[in-house]
Design a protein that fits this description.
CATH class of the largest domain: Mainly Beta
Strand content: 35-45%
Number of strands: 27
CATH architecture of the largest domain: Beta Complex
Structural class: alpha+beta
Distance between the termini: 199 Å
Number of domains: 3
């Protein structure tokens, strides 16, 4: 027993202060070595969002990932960086305008209890939800270019089938929709009624049903009228050997009908269609001069256009034999 006591005394008592110093240094070196393996690292944690959107829709875009400042053992941090396991976020139980927060404890549990979460960015976001609703709205024909200058669309006679379509989506967006437009229709080269299908334009964030409509667009020829002043009255088919003089020498004419016809008539060319036909006047071959007080002018038909003389409607015509065209006298044997 004395021998054992002597041995223990030699181990723990003799030079005790040196042994305590050695123990302290060993503990200090242990903590210094451990501290050298502790690091602070900025980690990106992806989010996996889950939400029930059958009756509601997310109006704000949740963050795709979180920036998390983590403190822990270097080896453990290396493992976390290698995995980057997404954090599941279930939004189904949240109400509109609710604040969704990311707590350090939840992130620590996700990453591992042996890691310390120092900061999170963003730490929260406000959730905005909207109810999914439906309503019926009318279809509006979007005519990009109208027919040419002589044709017109009879808008009050346009037929659309179906006239109303269904719009579905977030209530805040559906509420603003008053009508749905068709895709632009170019009618610049069309000169007859148009019939066919037109696709409806998309509205971002909304569903439209059906996606196309059948349309009938009446296109009619444009009509107009104008008065041509001081057109020269001419005599056509003046008998051979005679000169024909018309009085009054000028007239005015009102033209009404298709604009493509009306627009082409001028004081210079109207005489092709309004004139005195001297060829129907009864003139004897041996007459030197013949005067007609009341002669009605001829007015040609112009593809649906109507000609009217708002001024003088009758003219006087004088036929005078040319000086070098003496009447032939009968020679008797």
């Amino acid at each position: 027993m004395n021998a054992v006591t002597s041995i223990l005394a030699a181990v723990f008592v003799r030079n005790g202060w040196l042994k305590l110093l050695a123990l302290a240094l060993a503990v200090a070196f242990f903590f210094i070595a451990r501290e050298e393996t502790i690091r602070e690292v900025d980690i990106e944690i992806p989010l996996r969002i889950r939400a029930d959107t059958r009756e509601r829709v997310l109006m704000t875009e949740p963050p795709a990932a979180l920036r998390v400042l983590v403190r822990g053992d270097l080896q453990r941090l290396t493992d976390v960086l290698a995995r980057k396991t997404p954090l599941d976020v279930d939004l189904s139980a949240y109400s509109n305008n609710a604040k969704v927060e990311f707590s350090p404890d939840a992130l620590a549990r996700h990453l591992g209890e042996d890691l310390e979460v120092l900061s999170i960015s963003p730490a929260s976001f406000t959730l905005q939800l909207d109810d999914i609703v439906e309503k019926r709205v009318p279809v509006a024909i979007n005519i990009l270019k109208n027919p040419g200058p002589f044709w017109t669309v009879v808008r009050e006679k346009i037929v659309v089938e179906p006239r109303m379509v269904q719009v579905k989506g977030p209530e805040s967006k559906v509420r603003k929709v008053k009508q749905v437009h068709t895709e632009p229709a170019d009618l610049s080269e069309v000169t007859q009624p148009f019939a066919g299908k037109l696709t409806l334009e998309d509205i971002e964030g909304l569903t439209i049903s059906p996606r196309s409509v059948r349309v009938e667009i009446p296109i009619e020829e444009r009509h107009g009228a104008k008065t041509i002043p001081r057109a020269k009255m001419v005599a056509k088919r003046c008998p051979s050997g005679f000169q024909c003089a018309v009085s009054p020498a000028f007239f005015q004419v009102r033209v009404a009908g298709p604009e493509r016809i009306v627009s082409q008539l001028t004081p210079e060319n109207i005489s092709q269609y309004v004139y005195v036909d001297a060829g129907v006047l009864p003139v004897e071959k041996d007459s030197l001069q013949r005067h007609f007080d009341v002669v009605e002018p001829t007015m040609e038909k112009l593809q649906g256009a109507v000609l009217e003389l708002p001024g003088p409607k009758f003219f006087s015509v004088t036929l005078t034999r040319n000086a070098d065209a003496s009447p032939q006298t009968e020679t008797r044997p």
